[in-house]
Structures are given as structure tokens and as C-alpha cells.
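[Automated response] Your request has been received and processed.

Submitted sequence:
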Amino acid sequence: MNLTHFLKQTDALTAQYSTEQLIAFIHEIERVFPEHRREDFLEMLKSAGNKSGKAPNQNQEKDIDFDKMYRHVRDNLKSIDSQELAIIGRLSEECGGK
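Generated structure:
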């Protein structure tokens, strides 16, 4: 599942729950979270409270850009696979080419 679809489904589901239900869900995640990642989890939780109202829009823009890039790459790979398009190599200076 791509990120945009995942986020849309998550938003739709969380909109149905009360604050208490979401807190209980976070507690369940905390119970199974690996010990070596708990500090990371706390940092994510802290940063969630510091985000401005513009963050979701910026993230949504990045998701749209990512999906567009993903579709472009996927379409090119399909063209290569069906032999409609060929890859012509080009060496960079770091690899010994000029």
C-alpha cells in the first residue's frame, strides 16, 4: 500500500474514534514497541505536539510528488520490461567514464 493511500485510510479511521479511544490505541502500541526504539517513539510523540497547522498540507504535497514520481518510474519499468524502451548506460567520471 502506498503512503498516500495508507494516510487517507488512517485519517478516515481515526476520525471515527474519540480521544480516549485513540489514547488507548497509543498505549497498545507502546506495550509492543521494541525497547531499542522507545526513545524514537517518545521523540515522535513530542514532535507531534509541536507541528504547525501547515504540516499536513506539506506532507500531502510531498505524498503527491512521491506518487507522481513512483508512477513515472513504474511506467518506465513497464516499458523496459515490454521492450518498448531500452536503457543506454552512461558512466560518470567517478566510475571511470568521461
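Summary generated for your ticket: The helical segments are 3-14, 19-32, 38-48, 55-81. The radius of gyration is 21 Å.
If you did not submit this request, please reply to this message.
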